[in-house]
Specification:
The structure holds 2 protein chains of 2 kinds. The longest helix of chain A has about 35 residues, at about 195-225. Chain A has helices spanning about 20-30, 30-40, 55-70, 85-90, 95-125, 135-155, 160-175, 180-190, 195-225, 245-270, 295-305, 310-330, 345-370, 370-390, 400-410, 410-425, 425-430, 450-460, 465-470, 480-490; strands at about 45, 245, 395. The radius of gyration of chain A is 32 Å and the shape is elongated. Chain A is about 65% helix and about 0% strand. By secondary structure, chain A is mainly α. Chain A folds into 3 domains: about 1-40, no CATH class; about 45-390, Cytochrome Bc1 Complex, Chain C; about 400-490, Orthogonal Bundle (Cytochrome Bc1 Complex, Chain D, domain 2), CATH 1.10.760. In chain B, a hairpin with a 5-residue loop joins β8 and β9 (about 150). A 4-stranded antiparallel sheet of chain B has the order 1-3-4-5, with no helix packed on it. In chain B, strands 6-7-8-9 form a 4-stranded antiparallel sheet, with no helix packed on it. Chain B is α+β, with helices and mostly antiparallel strands. Residues about 1-15 of chain B have low confidence and may be disordered. Chain B is elongated. The longest helix of chain B is centred in the N-terminal third of the chain and has 33 residues, at about 20-50. The chains are: A mainly alpha, B alpha+beta.
Chain lengths: ~500, ~190
């Protein structure tokens, strides 16, 4: 056995085995062997089962999300001006960009699905029983954090769908009496959705929530190993008696089969049906019918039923009670019975909650199809998305060219001056729009330093310092000089 | 967690040890190799994504259209044109305007000159009366095809790279270093 090749002092045991030199060298310094044994030789009472595969499936998707997320950040810019352009660049221009973005976006959905299966398995198997309260609590917090990741990530592409879904989502928060309005403003970074909202969501999505997730995943695994695998439903939660099988190899293989399924499924989906990117967010679009991602549809539908004076019941009281009940579950349910058929109350509650969620989600879909106006608008939005997807990538016009172009529209005299400025290649040294280059200083904001008369004098008779820098005297007819000065003074 | 509590399948199924142990390590190698290949496969899109700047151009100075080629066949003297220059930088682009001259060389072939004087960068106007380019700043003069005639400049006016596409005369605008005898691109 590998682990037995050395005793605790790192000395060679009497029965030497075949070990590669590199492995021995590495193991002496890292204790990798012990670590691997601890990870793989976890005993599972009752033996390996397919029911236990969801936890490691979640870990796999989370790692995939981290990696794809880091890569997406190579091109993404979190600002209202550039977010959509950069995501369009990723989707339409960058090699494998559409695939990676799809993997990240669909990965979020896969995460929610596997999370639901993991939670259901834990609940139905009664695996939260037997000194597993903290394990359950850390799992609940992770559930919330994953949903927060999905919510914050959804806004970042800043397309129509993202903008309006988040506008509705953050509006729902303001329904909470008292602190609701302030919370909404805090989350949005203002009363309206804007570039500060993107910054806040980006920081939450990329720095804040992942940090908590890393910490909680570590504690979740640690608490799990401390409590031990719960085993099948007829196993005692405190004192497992059934014959145990080690995690490696059979449970590892079963876990890997889910991983393989996820890789194949997500890969195929991303390849065949890439995640759509709609046209850029247009806050002025009053027609747009916002719809959240599928896993938020039940909450979306639920909130429709609560308005006016009873809103507080639906928006705050019931959800809070539900969350508290879920959190307190291992404290309330002290019965050691784990077999589902002997736990009618727990199973009944589970059935009611799942049925309600599914029903609410389906109801939202059904209502959208029933209402011809909504159905038409949703179809139109889908068509606009497809239309946008077909267009080639169009780079964003930089603000320098925009400022220069705007002058043309604003003032005819300055516009003439711009032609002279460029015609005489002033921009060769002073830069387009007078932004300055290595060869000559910027001219923007020069109005504050010199009056038009002073400028005219400087143009006709440059100072010795200007001459030395290569600035020639400008000999222009008075009208042209006036136009040039008007343009230079307009530079901001 | 005390492991002693559990009787493992391992301990029971293989009292002799080695056969199961070697089966397990064979599986371990198989799994290691499998994971390695799947990992390698999965990293292909990541690598392609990160190496995009090596696969395609991410910054580019686009060729600008000067006009229909046929417009310039009957040219008798240099004409000034304003071209729009599009500079692509990743996901953004900048558009600016520049003045250039379309002229002919001694063999009658079209030549496109930048209007920037290679001496100190002033814009050089065409003087009809003198049949020469005359720089207003320091008096450098150039012939109709851009070759240097007199004055402080160390070289003739700079010709730009041209191409023809669908009957359009295209030009690639560039800046050149001033005050040196040989044409040298600076961006």
């Amino acid at each position: 056995m590998r682990g037995n090749a050395f005793d605790n002092n790192g000395e060679r045991s009497p029965a030497p085995r075949r070990e590669s030199g590199v492995w021995v060298w590495l193991n002496h310094r890292t204790g990798l062997d012990d670590l691997l044994r601890t990870a793989l030789d976890e005993p599972i009472p009752g033996g390996a089962r397919f029911a236990y595969i969801f936890g490691s499936g979640l870990l796999f998707i989370f790692i995939s999300q981290v990696i794809t997320g880091i890569f997406l950040a190579l091109y993404y810019v979190p600002s209202a001006d550039h977010a959509h352009t950069t995501v369009a660049y990723i989707t339409k221009a960058v090699t494998a960009g559409s695939f990676l973005r799809s993997l990240h976006a669909y990965g979020a959905s896969a995460m929610v699905v596997v999370l639901f299966l993991h939670l259901s398995q834990t609940y139905i198997y009664g695996s939260y029983k037997g000194r597993r309260e903290l394990l359950w609590l850390s799992g609940c917090v992770l559930f919330g954090l994953i949903l927060a990741m999905a919510f914050t990530g959804y806004l970042l592409p800043w397309d129509q769908r993202a903008y309006f879904a988040t506008a509705v989502g953050t509006n729902a928060i303001s329904e909470v009496p008292g602190i609701g309005e302030y919370t909404k403003r805090l989350i949005r970074g203002g009363t309206e959705m804007g570039t500060l909202t993107i910054s806040r969501f980006f920081v939450a999505h990329v720095f804040l929530i992942p940090a908590f997730i890393f910490a909680l995943v570590a504690s979740h695994i640690l608490l799990f190993r401390k409590a031990g695998a719960a085993g099948p439903v007829n196993e005692h939660p405190y004192h497992p008696k059934q014959e145990a099988e080690l995690f490696y190899p059979r449970q590892v293989l079963m876990d890997l089969s889910l991983t393989a399924l996820l890789i194949a499924g997500l890969g195929l989906l991303c390849f065949l049906v890439p995640m759509p990117l709609g046209p850029p967010a247009n806050p002025a679009d009053a027609q747009y019918v916002p719809r959240p991602e599928w896993y938020y549809l039940p909450i979306f539908q639920w909130l429709k039923y609560w308005h006016g004076s009873v809103a507080i019941v639906g928006v705050l009281v019931i959800p809070t009670l539900l969350v508290l009940a879920i959190l307190a579950l291992p404290f309330l349910d002290r019965n050691v019975e784990r077999r589902p058929w002997k736990r009618p109350v727990a199973m009944g509650a589970y059935a009611i909650v799942v049925f309600s969620l599914v029903n609410l989600g389906l109801r939202s879909e059904y209502l959208d199809r029933q209402d011809p106006g909504v159905a038409r608008q949703l179809a139109k939005q889908k068509a606009e998305e497809d239309d946008y997807a077909r267009k080639p990538f169009e780079p964003e016009l930089s603000s320098v060219s925009l400022a220069a172009a705007n002058v043309t529209l604003a003032d005819p005299l300055a516009a003439k001056g711009k032609t002279i400025f460029e015609g005489h290649s002033c921009n060769a040294c002073h830069g387009d729009g007078g932004v300055g280059t290595a060869a000559a200083p910027a001219l923007v904001g020069i109005k504050a330093k010199f009056s038009p008369d002073q400028l005219a004098e400087l143009f006709k008779h440059p100072t010795a310092k200007m001459n030395a820098g290569g600035m020639p005297p400008i000999d222009l007819p008075p009208d042209d000089l006036k136009a040039l000065i008007s343009y230079v003074e307009s530079l901001k | 967690m005390s492991k002693g509590r559990f009787r493992t399948h391992d301990a029971q199924a293989s009292p002799s040890g080695p056969p199961l142990e070697s089966r397990r390590s064979f599986l371990g190698v198989l799994l290691g190799l499998g994971s390695f290949f799947v990992g390698a496969l999965l990293s292909v899109p990541l690598i392609r994504f990160a190496l995009f700047p090596l696969i395609r151009r991410t910054t580019e100075l686009k060729s600008s259209s000067v006009g229909e080629l046929s417009e310039f066949w009957s040219l008798t003297e240099p004409v000034m044109r304003t071209i729009q220059i599009e500079q692509v930088d990743g996901w953004r682009k900048a558009i600016s305007e520049k003045a250039i001259y379309v002229t002919k060389n001694s063999q009658g072939q079209l030549r496109v000159l930048t209007s920037i004087c290679p001496h100190l960068g002033c814009t050089v106007p065409w003087s009809k009366e003198r049949n020469q380019f005359v720089c207003p700043c320091h008096g450098a003069t150039y012939a109709a095809d851009g070759t240097r005639v007199s004055g402080p400049s160390l070289r003739g006016m700079d010709a730009l790279e041209t191409s023809v596409q669908d009957g359009q005369l295209l030009v690639r605008f560039q800046y050149f270093r001033q005050l040196v005898p040989d044409k040298e691109v600076i961006g």
